[in-house]
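Lab meeting notes turned into a lecture example. A postdoc, R.K., suggested we walk through two folding results consecutively so the class can see how the record format repeats. The first protein's sequence and C-alpha cells come next.
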Amino acid sequence: MTAAVDRHPIVFVGLPLSSWAFAIRIWLAVVLALYISFWLELEAPSSAAVTAAILALPTRGQVLEKAVFRLIATAIGVAASITIVSLFAQTGGLLLVAFAAWLGVCVYGVGMLDGNRAYAAALSGYTVAIIAVQQIDNPQHVFESAMARGAAITVGVLTVTILNDLLIAPDGYPHLATQLETLRRRIADYVQCVLHGEAMPGMTAAGLLREIVALRPEIGSLAAELSSGPARSAAARSAMVGLVAELFAARALETLSVKASPTLRVQIISEPDASSGAVALWSREASANGQRKDSHDVLAQSLSWFSDHVLRIDDEVRESLEALSAARRLPRAWRAPLYRSRRIAAETGIKAAVYFLLAAAFFAVSGWSSTDVSLSFIAIVIGLGATTPDLRAFTMIAVVAALVASLMAGMLEFVVLDGATAFPLLAIGLAPFLIGATLLMTLPNRILSALGRLNLVFILLLLAPSNPQTYNPKAFLFSVLFLLLATGLLFAAEIFVPTASNDRRRHWLLASARRNLHRLPSHRKQDLAPEEAMFRDAGRVAQILAAGGDVPQHRPAMEEAMAIFDQAATLRLCEDELDRLTEGPLRPEVGAAYMSLVNRDPGAIVASADALNEAASIQDISVAGASAALVLASVTFTSRRPGAEFSAETKS
C-alpha cells in the first residue's frame, strides 16, 4: 500500500508548515555553515554559505545525492582549472578560449544527463570560471584558490547533511509513491475510456508520458535515502517503467477495438458498466467469457490477450508500489534508460562556448578592468541555464533575479546590518531574506520558484559574508554592476546568436525517432527489454511535447510522435514474443513473421499470425502473445504511416 498523505496540511500565512520548516532549515544551514567557516578561518566562507543555499532541496535523498555530485564536480573543476592554467598561463586570450571550450564540453554533458548528474556537469564547467578565470592575472594562486573553495564547499555539504539528519528532513518516497499511484489511476481511467469506445487524443497520452518520465531524477535520488534507499529507488523505477508499458497496452487496446466488428465492440465495452470502473474486474470477466477465448477470430483473441496484458502490467505496478512503501527488493527491477539527443546537446554546448567568447570579446574591446568576476557570473548562468529546458527563458529570469537580489542585498547590508559585526546580528539579519527566498522556491509557479532559487544564491554572492563583515559601498556597487552586466550581456548574446528554435529541435527529435523505427526489428539480442526501450522512447516523446506544447500547429507533430512510439513498441513486443519461439519447431513460421515485419506489410503480417496459430495448434504450443502482437502490428501499420503527412515540417 502507498503511504498516506495529509490531504489537509496545516497552513500558516498561506503556506503549509512543511514549506516553513524547509525554509527555516535552509536558513539555519547557511548560518551554521558560515559560523563553522569563520571558526575555521577559511579563506572563502561565502562559498560554504552558497553551497548550503544551492543544496536547498526538500528531501534528504535529493540533498545527499546533490552534495555527492557537487563534491565530485568540484574536484573535476579544480583539476581542469589547474590543467588549463598550467597550459595557457602565459596567454590570457588562449586561456579564455580553452575555458570556453571546456564550458562547451560540460554543457554538452548537461544535455546528455538529467537531474543532479546534469547539475554536476554544469558545476564542472563554471568552477573553472570561479577558480581560474578570476585568477587570470595571478595564475600562481590558482592552487590556493582551488583548495580554499574546496574546503568551504566541504563545510557547506557536511553542514547541510548533518542538519538535515538532526532536524529530521523528510524522505521523498511517500510523496513519490502518491504521485505514482495517482498516475496509475489516471491510466486506469484512460483504459476505461478506451473500453467505452471513447477516442483518446494523442496529446492526452503524450502528456501522461511526460509526467511519468519527469519523475526519473527524483526516483534516482531515492537511492541516497538511508540503507533502504536503493531498494526503494529500484521499486519506484520499476513502477515508472511499468506505467509506460501499461499506457502502451491501453493504446493497443484502443487501436484493436477500432478495427473490431460492431458485435465484438458491444461485447467488449458492455462489461465495464457493471464493474464500477474497475479494469481488473472487467478483464477477469472477459477472460471467463468462453466465446471470446474459444473464438478463431485472431482480432478477438488479440483483444483478449491485450486485456489480460493490461491486467498483468497493472498487477506488476501495484507490486512495485508496495515494494516502494515497504522498502522491499523486487525479484527483477526494470532499468529506466534516458533518451538524449546528441545533436541538440552539441548545438547547446557550441552556443554556450560562443556566448562566453562574445562576452569576453566585449570586455576585451571595452578595456575595463576587473571584469573576471562578470565572466564568472556569465559562466554560472550559462551552466545553470543549461540544466533547464530553455536557456533563454532562464536568462530572462536571471536578469530579473539579478535586479531583485541587488536591491535585497543592498537593503540587507546597508540598512538592516548597517555596520554590525557581531555574528548573531548577521544571522538574524539574514533570516527574512533567506527564508523569504526559500518560501518562494516552494511555490508551484515555476517562474516564481526559479526567482526564489536564484535570489537565494545571488543575495549571498553579493553580500559575500566575511569575518568581520565589511561595508564597502564601492565594492558592493561593482559586484552589482558585474552581476547585472553578466546577465544583460548573456541575454544580448542569446538574441544575437539564438539557440535552435523549438521547431528545429522538434524536427531533429522526430527524425531520430524515424531512424530508430526504421531499424526495427533488429534481429539482434537487445540490451534493453521491450519495456525499458519503451521508456526511453517515452523520454523522446516528452521532449517533443516540451518543444511544442499543446497548441494546434504542433499537434500534427505530436500525433506523428505518438504513432512512431506505438509502432516501435509494437515491433519490439513482436520481436520479444517471436524470440521465445525461434528455437522450437515453429522456426519457419517465425522467420516468415519476421520478414513480414521488416517489409511492414499488414496483409503478410496477418497471414503470418494465422500460419503461426495453425502450426502451434498442431504442435500444441501457446503462441497467444506472438499472435496478438502480430495482429496489433498489422492494424498499426494499416493506419497512417508516420511522416507521410508531415513532409513540409520535415523539410523545414
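The second example is placed directly after the first for contrast:
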Amino acid sequence: MGANVTLEALASLASCLKVSIKDLVPENEFETLTPASISELCSTLERVAESLSKTSGLLSEVQRFAELRERLERLAEKGTER
C-alpha cells in the first residue's frame, strides 16, 4: 500500500475534523517532531476515530430504516393484490 495521500483525501479529512488542510501537513520537510506535536496528532486521531464511530453508528441506523421501508413496500404490494 502506498504512502501517498491525495489532496482530495486530505481536504475530506480536514473537513470531517473541522480543521484547515494546512493543519494536517507539516510546515516543511525538516519540521522536528516534538512531544507537543505527537500529543496533537494523538488528539486528532482520537477525533478521527470518534467521527468514524459516529458514522458507522449512523450507517447501521440507515440500514434499519431501509429494511423497514422494504418490508412496508412488500406489505403495501400484498395489500393491493387483494
